[in-house]
Write a structure and sequence with these properties.
Helix content: under 10%
Shape: globular
Strand content: over 45%
Largest sheet: 22 strands, antiparallel, barrel
Number of strands: 36
Radius of gyration: 24 Å
Distance between the termini: 39 Å
Length: 664
């Protein structure tokens, strides 16, 4: 804790230094472009939206989406060990209460309802955004705690190409390759990204006898490719096809209580999407059709387990957005989803269908500098009745550089196919989980002559009824709508930048205090009643400080995770831990103005011995050296519209109070 105290004190000292020399705000008006703001930016009013910028994301070479979330937010990421299953939970909810959307379409397989984030490459996407709080009225089932948006959008305003390749080598015989190519040709756009990683993952850990030992049977191979192609059509239209393939082979290492392991797992994902968009000043039309195929094979010969899981999804959607004058926007859409899964633990292959109708409305109050948004959604599912969902939120200025926001929403999660049809124990008569979510926040955002400061504070509350839970029985586990969960807490986030000639100093911090408890007794002596949910830390802190000067970059990142209970009566727990990572880089300009960057990541530099899941050891100090070369030759195409999400581009950490002109 002494290290944590010194680290936080240093950050607060520099933050105070930045709060000096106030100057009046001026307004910067940008040149006119055709703007395509995402639906989240436009209609999710009163909620926190965080979009990491490309500079911060560049520090996570060969990293997965789970690594990015764990390093840059105070959201809790549950990791079963290096290279193994990684899930995330927002605001005291579970993994399948977090929606993961690719270009607006949920990609979680229907059998389990969540995606293993260790199999999603963060470098594949131009924009990654995290929306905190309930978003089921906008995006449907499962978005109770929060949602993650992965987006790639075409760019037609340039002609030429941009390319990069990054080679990495690090501890535990880890080697990786990441490369990307963007090609622009007037009305044509292509984006290709490739990632390959192999690691023996044989780090040293302390065994049950407190002796150092190498982790056996832990090799990881992971690869993926994503391809986007878009053609601009006459009349301000474009059509884009996307294909995303991911493959992984993993050896499952033994736990601290096992002598050995022979378990292996193979994961293969094939995701495709076709998008047509007709955009104009006053209205947009968009149609999407997607096909997802997920395959998992798990083999454990000593346990005589040989399991194959196949799931498929087909999604079709049509949406329209209309600007009514300069103060009102209306959005409406319809989506059809067909899902199929085939598991050895089902009596027969299972499928389900969903039809969703949804609409949104936003109004701007120019005099008050406030905005308000309303969202509504009704889903029709095979097998049970879904509730009508709605949300209302508003945000805006309350005094000079101080803004406020609030929102209230009704959300739900439909049971997964595993919860309904797993044999033995599945329950076809399960009801969907339902929740009420509320939040209230304040944001202070001020720019000075030599820097800027942004601080946000949010109080949140959610009540989830009919919480689905697997319970032990006489001979097997079965599933019921067994609990009511009350989650509440506060979130603090901050970002400070200070400029001294060519030196840039930056600090960002994120802290969450969370209380998430079971409010319903299953029986008279239920020991879980009023207790904190398992794997839900009350305290989570992420803090980063960095400096840039003449191509040199250094950053120090700290992450604190509080005590985590591992038993429902809170009698067993994992201790709190603090991890400190160091990142160093230098960029050189090669002949022809091609940047070459040498990047060194040192993780867990305090060599902390810790566990995120019981009996699953995690690595001590380790490093990764990356060499990245960027090549490019492009020129502007006069008269071509810009098909970019401008609001996401101009703000690396948008608190949902960010639709007004930029202050400079």
């Amino acid at each position: 804790m002494r290290t944590v105290f010194l680290f936080v004190s240093f950050m607060m000292g520099i933050s105070g230094l930045m709060a000096q020399e106030l100057v009046p705000d001026t307004v910067l008006f940008l040149d006119g472009v055709t703007v395509f703001s995402s639906r989240t930016n436009r209609f999710a009013k009163g909620q926190v939206l965080f979009t990491p910028d490309s500079l911060n994301r560049s520090e996570y070479a060969a990293a997965t989406l789970g690594d990015l979330i764990n390093g840059m937010t105070s959201t809790y990421s549950r990791n079963y060990g290096q290279g193994t299953l990684s899930t995330v939970s927002f605001r005291g909810t579970s993994a399948n209460h977090t929606g993961l959307l690719w270009n607006g379409v949920r990609i979680s397989p229907p059998n389990i309802g969540y995606v293993d984030l260790s199999l999603v490459q963060q470098s594949f996407f131009n924009t990654i955004s995290f929306l905190f709080g309930g978003a089921s009225p906008m995006f449907g089932s499962g978005n109770i705690g929060g949602s993650i948006q992965l987006e790639n959008r075409p760019v037609f305003e340039k002609s030429g190409y941009d390319a990069n390749i990054a080679l990495s080598a690090g501890s535990f015989n880890t080697y990786s390759l990441e490369s990307g190519l963007k090609f622009y040709r007037k009305n044509f756009y292509s984006h290709t990204a490739i990632s390959v990683l192999n690691s023996l993952n044989n780090f040293f850990y302390k065994n049950s006898q407190d002796k150092n030992e190498k982790l056996p049977h832990a090799e990881i191979f992971r690869s993926g490719i994503i391809q986007d192609m878009a053609v601009q059509l006459p009349g301000k239209q474009y059509i884009m096809g996307s294909a995303w393939f991911q493959y992984a082979d993993r050896e499952i290492p033994p736990t601290l209580t096992e002598a050995s392991s022979e378990a292996v797992q193979t994961d293969r994902s094939w995701r495709t999407m076709l998008i047509w968009k007709d955009f104009n000043v006053s209205n947009n039309l968009e149609a999407r059709i997607a096909y997802f195929n997920e395959y998992t094979r798990y083999d454990d010969p000593p346990a005589d387990v040989f399991s194959t899981i196949v799931s498929q999804s087909v999604v079709g959607a049509f949406e329209s957005t209309w600007a009514i004058g300069d103060k009102d926007d209306v959005f409406s859409g319809a989506q059809y989803t067909y899902e199929f899964a085939d598991l050895v633990n089902y009596d027969s292959p299972q499928h389900q269908q969903t039809m969703a109708l949804y609409a949104s409305y936003r109004h701007i109050f120019p005099v008050l500098q406030w905005q308000a948004g309303i969202n509504g959604r009704q889903e029709f599912l095979s097998g049970f009745q879904a509730p009508f969902l709605f949300s209302f939120g508003a945000e805006g200025k309350i005094w000079k550089f101080l803004s406020a926001r609030f929102s209230i929403s009704r959300n739900f999660r439909a049971p997964t196919l595993n919860e309904r049809f797993w044999q033995p124990g599945g329950n076809p008569d399960l009801k969907p989980e339902k929740s009420w979510n509320e939040e209230l926040g304040l944001v202070a955002d001020k720019q000075f002559s030599h820097g800027l400061m942004k601080i946000g504070l949010t109080a949140f509350n959610s009540n989830v009824s009919d919480w689905i839970l697997w319970l032990p029985g006489n001979s097997y586990w079965s599933v019921e709508n067994a609990q009511e969960v009350w989650s509440r807490g506060i979130e603090f986030s901050g970002e400070q930048n200070y400029y001294i000639n060519k030196l840039t100093l930056s600090i960002s911090e994120s802290y969450t205090y969370l209380k998430s408890t079971n409010e319903k007794k299953l029986f008279e002596l239920d020991a879980s009643y009023k207790k904190q949910l398992i794997y839900t830390p009350s305290h989570r802190l992420s803090i980063r400080t960095g400096a840039l000067y003449h191509g040199y970059s250094v950053s120090l990142r700290g992450n604190f995770t509080g005590l985590v209970y591992t038993s429902k009566d809170n009698s067993e727990s994992l201790p709190a831990y603090f991890l400190l990572d160091l990142s160093l880089s230098k960029t050189f300009n090669l002949k022809g103005n091609h940047p070459l960057t040498i990047h060194l990541n040192l993780n867990n530099i305090l060599n902390k011995d810790y566990q995120a899941v019981p009996y699953r050891p995690m690595p001590g100090i380790n490093g990764l050296l990356t060499v990245k070369v960027a090549l490019g030759k492009s020129a502007a195409c006069p008269g071509e519209p810009v098909t970019r999400d401008w609001q996401s581009a101009v703000s690396s950490q948008q608190s949902a109070v960010g639709s007004w002109p930029l202050a400079k």
